[in-house]
Amino acid sequence: MKTSKLNLNKQIKLALLAAMAFLLMLFEIQVPIFPSFLKIDLSDLPALIGAFAFGPVEGIIIEFFKNLLFVVFKGTQTALVGEIANFFIGGLLVSTSALIYNINKTRKNAIIGLISGTIVMSLVAGLLNYFVLVPVYAKAFGAPVSAIVGMGSKINSNIKDLSSLVILSIVPFNILKGFVVSIVTLGIYKSVSPIIHKEAFMSKQSFAKKHM
User: Fold this and answer.
1) What DSSP element (H or E) covers 30?
2) CA-closest candidate to residue 43, choices 3, 1, 93
3) Per the confidence metrics, is the pTM higher than 0.85?
4) Over the stretch 89-139, which tens digit does the pLDDT of each residue have?
5) Percentage of the chain with pLDDT > 70?
6) What is the pLDDT of residue 211?
């Protein structure tokens, strides 16, 4: 019964974190040094908090439902390419960060995990965009890849082709995004962690008292 109650409590918290992530996904910030299709939001923040609190799988679950809610309530303007990319790339950030953090839950490990997660996310995002996402996006909208490259060229004249778009825009953008989300996570996780773990902590205390 207690286990069932804890599981239900955990599911409710994951659902709330997914809903928060969806809401944060609605607020995007355009960064002038990047093409207009690259916008920063803090929607990975609740997924990181969930992943740190419960584990990497739970973080990925939050990322999945965040994007599902976005498609259901807002629809897609990218033929689902953007949402699928957001899920995979965000999932890499939260799972890598949480895997390292959960080895030893210290602030140092959290920092190492977030740095590692940002690096992995940025590198894989670059490869995914080069080989899959940009070509699929261009095909879905019947536009040449050069049109997307052109959006980057307007911002940075050094962008001449897809590879330079990835190296000079997509990878740096994901590094910046990972840095911003990581800083906010480090700033608030210590405060919200006791709230997330409250039910489990109280149940353990109750169990201990009954068996003393």
Assistant:
1) strand 29-30
2) 93
3) yes
4) 999 999 999 999 999 999 999 999 999 999 999 999 999 999 999 999 999
5) 91
6) 40
Q: Provide the residue type at 172 as one letter.
A: P
3-class SS of residue 138 = helix
DSSP string for residues in 145-202: HHHHHHHHHHH-TT--SHHHHIIIIIHHHHHHHHHHHHHHHHHHHHHHHHHHHHHHHH
φ/ψ bin of 55: left (φ > 0), alpha (ψ from -120 to 50), beta (otherwise): left
Domains in the chain, CATH or no CATH each = 2-25+41-193 (1.10.1760.20)
Alpha-carbon gap, residue 39 to 35, rounded angstroms: 8
Helix (H, G, I), strand (E, B) or coil at 29: strand
The distance in angstroms from the start CA to the end CA of the chain is 20
Q: How far apart are CA 121 and CA 119, in angstroms?
A: 5
The secondary structure of residue 39, as a DSSP letter, is E
Tokens at residue 175, please?
């590094």
Residue 41 and residue 25 in contact, taking contact as beta carbons nearer than 8 Å: yes
How far, CA to CA in Å, does 30 sit from each of 18, 160, 210?
23, 22, 55
42, 24 Cβ separation under 8 angstroms:
yes
The helix (run of H) or strand (run of E) holding residue 3 is: helix 2-25
DSSP 51-75: HHHH-HHHHHHHHHHHHHHHHHHH-
Q: How many residues does the chain have?
A: 212
Please report which helix (H) or strand (E) contains residue 28, including its range: none
